[in-house]
Write a structure and sequence with these properties.
Helix 1 packs across helix 5 and helix 3 packs across helix 4. The longest helix has 18 residues. 43% of the residues are buried. By secondary structure, the protein is an alpha+beta fold. A hairpin with a 4-residue loop joins strand 1 and strand 2. The chain is built from five helices and five strands; from the N terminus they run H-E-E-H-H-H-E-E-H-E. Strands 2-1-4-3-5 form a five-stranded antiparallel β-sheet.
Length: 141
């Protein structure tokens, strides 16, 4: 796989939501982006707040743009806050360095996209993203 298909993106979302439901997490929003940061698929569960789309997309957008999980970016932001504030401003708020998104890698280790979630804690959001990626046989970072 050199590109992330819509069908695969939707399967990632389905698996992530199934994992979330099995864990009893609050209603989620999940965004899957392609390697260029463009929205491939999104789902917002019934009862999820209006902010879920923007937050999930911004976590995933930062991850795919910087090539690492939003958890790693959150740590980097602590070490270099001025850069990350500037990056967020430059991107018109599309960048959110908070846990809850992972990059999606193909078998060759190439980044083909990212998935971000919002609705639970950062750990819960990240956990369901990982579950979605693993369910389709891809790796994360």
């Amino acid at each position: 796989m050199t590109v992330l298909s819509l069908a695969t993106a939707q399967k990632i979302i389905d698996a992530a939501l199934a994992h979330s439901k099995a864990q009893g997490y609050k209603p989620m929003g999940i965004a899957v982006l392609d390697e260029a940061g463009q929205l491939k698929a999104f789902a917002r569960e019934d009862g999820a707040s209006m902010f879920r789309f923007d937050i999930a997309r911004a976590k995933a957008w930062g991850a795919v743009g910087m090539g690492s999980s939003s958890r790693v970016l959150a740590q980097r932001a602590k070490d270099n806050p001025n850069f990350f504030v500037s990056l967020s401003a430059t991107s018109d708020g599309k960048f959110l360095p908070q846990p809850g998104a992972v990059v999606i890698k193909n078998a060759a280790g190439q980044i083909v996209g990212a998935v971000g979630a919002s609705g639970g804690t950062g750990d819960q959001d990240e956990e369901i993203c990982i579950a979605g990626v693993q369910a389709v046989g891809l790796s994360h970072g």
